[in-house]
Design goal:
7 helices, mainly alpha
Length: 185
C-alpha cells in the first residue's frame, strides 16, 4: 500500500512539474516574441519624427495629421514595456495615423518625389515587414500559450501557476478600412 501511495505521489509530482514547466516555457516564448516586436517598434519610433519633419516642408497646412502621428507615437512610447496588451492597442492606433501620413505623400507630388522622404518611407517599409514577421511569430506563441492555459490539464493549474492570458496582435476594424484623407479644409 505504501508503494502505491508513493507511486501516485511521484506521478502527481511529475505531472505538476511538467505543467508548471510548460507554463513557464509558453510565457517565455511570448515574451521573446514580444521582444522582437519591441526592437522593431523602437526603430519605427526613431524614424517617425524624421518622416513628419520631411512631410511638413511640403504639406505644412496638414498640421492636424502631423500632430496625430506625433501624439500616437508618444502614446505608444509611454506604455510601460511589460504591458503587452496595452502596447498592442497603442500600436494599432499609431499604425492608423501612419497610414494617414503616407496618404499625404500620394496627394503631394513634390513630397512623393523627395529623395529624403522616399528613403525614410523605404526604411519604414523594411521595419514594417520585419514587424509583420515578428507579429506572426508572436501570435503563434500567444496561441500556444492561451490554448494550453485554457485546456486540460493547464486550466486546472492556471490559477496556481499564475497563468497569463495574452492578446493577439491584430488589426483593428479601422485599419481594415481604406484611409480617407480630406484635403478640402
Amino acid at each position: 500500500m505504501l508503494y502505491i501511495i508513493i507511486g501516485v505521489l511521484l506521478v502527481l509530482s511529475v505531472l505538476l512539474i511538467s505543467v508548471y514547466n510548460r507554463f513557464v516555457k509558453n510565457r517565455n516564448l511570448v515574451k521573446d516574441g514580444w521582444s522582437n516586436i519591441d526592437v522593431a517598434l523602437k526603430k519605427r519610433y526613431d524614424l517617425i519624427p524624421n518622416l513628419v519633419e520631411t512631410a511638413k516642408g511640403y504639406a505644412a497646412h496638414e498640421k492636424d495629421t502631423f500632430e496625430k502621428v506625433v501624439q500616437a507615437r508618444n502614446a505608444a512610447m509611454a506604455v510601460p514595456s511589460g504591458d503587452i496588451n496595452n502596447q498592442i492597442k497603442a500600436e494599432n492606433q499609431l499604425q492608423q495615423t501612419l497610414r494617414s501620413l503616407f496618404a499625404l505623400g500620394e496627394a503631394y507630388p513634390d513630397l512623393k518625389a523627395n529623395t529624403n522622404f522616399l528613403q525614410l518611407q523605404e526604411k519604414l517599409n523594411e521595419i514594417e515587414e520585419n514587424l509583420e514577421r515578428s507579429r506572426r511569430y508572436y501570435n503563434g506563441t500567444v496561441r500556444e500559450n492561451n490554448t494550453y492555459g485554457e485546456s486540460f490539464p493547464g486550466v486546472i493549474f492556471a490559477g496556481v501557476f499564475n497563468y497569463t492570458h495574452f492578446d493577439y496582435f491584430e488589426s483593428t476594424e479601422d485599419e481594415r478600412q481604406n484611409v480617407k484623407v480630406d484635403f478640402s479644409s
